[in-house]
């Protein structure tokens, strides 16, 4: 017998990076298909315009994610908030925008029984991303190369019967500069939330999931759907929790064959997403 979906008040996800080979789109769709919430917050870098502009391939599964969210808005009056990230920064030209129950914003304050939470992607504190765009793209290229190497390495590990091992996380943990960057990022974003008289902050950007206290402020990072496969959920009583797909899938196992998200014909939705996020020159 199929389990009923888990019910939450709010779900926060970030850094899905649709349009890239490393995006775990089937997993994030499976997570959303087996949950219900009043509000879904897409906290930046949902679509990777940088990689699409370099020729990365947009797949049918990536379109299914967009269709899934739109269908939930249409059929279940789901409130969706999409925040601009650095990889989908083209949205910054048009903010804020409102389409019924879909809002596209820079940041906002989420009111919860647990307190006021500042919600933003987090790249505002990344000096390289904001002031040295060339270096940011160079770093992104390096990250994608590392992820490609990671993918082949784990195919070899799977062949040897070994579990998944993240090269990028291992490097982050051992390189002092990376550790210091994450720590500095967390402290700066916590100070911003306190300046806005919030009791907590919910962000993404650095692909490092977290749920902890920083000098009395509740710091939450939703991680990503490239490696961590994590999300922040708000329970009906206002409690915030960091959840991992690896734990979720034990209760809601994925089937080898993925049925269509909706029974409608996929051709009924043509969003021209590649044209929006990766405009052609000329």
Whole-number count of domains: 1
Label the overall shape: globular
Instruction: Report Rg.
Output: 18 Å
Q: What is the correct CATH architecture?
A: 4-Layer Sandwich
Q: Unreliable stretches, pLDDT < 50, 5 or more residues?
A: 131-138, 263-270
Mean pLDDT: 81
Q: Biggest sheet, in brief?
A: 7 strands, mixed
Which structural category fits the helices and strands?
alpha/beta
Strand content: 15-25%
The counted number of beta strands is: 12
Q: Main sheet: which strands, in order across?
A: 4-5-3-2-1-11-12
What's the level 1 CATH class? Alpha Beta
In DSSP terms (H or I, runs of 4 or more residues), the helix count works out at: 9
Question: Would you kindly provide a written description of the structure presented here, covering whatever features stand out?
Answer:
The chain has 282 residues and is of the alpha/beta class. It has one domain (8-122, 176-277): 4-Layer Sandwich (Purple Acid Phosphatase, chain A, domain 2), CATH 3.60.21.10. 37% of the residues lie in helices and 23% in strands. The protein contains 9 helices and 12 strands. The strands form 2 sheets. A 7-stranded mixed sheet has the order 4-5-3-2-1-11-12. A 5-stranded mixed sheet has the order 6-7-8-10-9, with helices on one face. The termini are far apart. Mean pLDDT is 81; it is low at 131-138 and 263-270.
